[in-house]
Prior knowledge:
The protein is of the alpha+beta class. The protein folds into three domains: about 70 residues, no CATH class; about 120 residues, Alpha-Beta Plaits, CATH 3.30.70; about 90 residues, PucR C-terminal helix-turn-helix domain (Arc Repressor Mutant, subunit A, Orthogonal Bundle), CATH 1.10.10. Helix content is about 55%, strand content about 10%. The protein is built from 14 helices and five strands. A five-stranded mixed beta sheet has the order 2-3-1-4-5, sandwiched between helices. The longest helix has 20 residues. It is elongated.
Amino acid sequence: MNIEDKKNKLLEQLNKATGINFSISDSDLSDEETVNKLKEMVVRFNVLDSKSAFYRSFLTRELSYSDAAAYIHRFHIDENAVRMVFYLESQTDYTKEAVSLLKSLLPDSQDALVQIDSKHIALIVHFEKTPDSEEINQYCMEFLDMLESEAFMSFKVSYDLPINKFTELPTSYKDIVLAMHIGNIFKSSDHIYSYNTLGLGRLLYNIPADEVETYLNNHINSDLLSSLDAETLNLLEAFFDNDLSLAETSRKMFIHRNTLIYRLDKFADLTGYDVRKFSDAITVKLSLMLYNYIRATK
């Protein structure tokens, strides 16, 4: 969100609270100072009249921790509780029914659902003790399965490690928004993304675009990769996901082993890389990930 958008949003909040239309003209303050003054006015007029609105402003860093103190007390928030933030993304605009279903999974009064925009929802969930990775994954599956079966909507979810300090919420939120973005680029077929396990994707995401282009041109260029059909791409991903096992890949893809071998041979003839060899598999895997990255940034 740029500085003008921030100003306009804060002015809208003031209008909602007071019924007065405010505008900014002939100000001696810098843009940053103006935004800070507007934030002070927002807090003073108590615009954040719900826990959800408060969390939204705090997660997105529109509200500083010092300004949040009164709301923390007002909403009886335990600052040292174990909590997690989940970030859900729908493929289309989500419905009121989807929101109601998600709220039904948040029985704890400390939990909160925050509607970020028409396609994104943040859930702040409290736990009695720190959950392990299996428990977290089951929690994510519960969200997605219920939304799929009862709201008939397809969602994805990203998350970070549990935290036990309230001040860590904005950082956790920033990381899971990034995890969703990186996951959609490098693992688009998945529906659950953990910021902590996107290591290679996070590394590649920070490589300058010109370096990516150079790598692809020296190995498998973008034009060649763009000519590959979806069936071939899915086959390669399945082969990598199954640790280069012909037997496991053919079983998971429901194709005969000889058919798989034929298709891999055809790919090797086209590109010069035999993905049954470990070194070639690494090159192809990296090239496909970088190609997806380049496509996503254009």
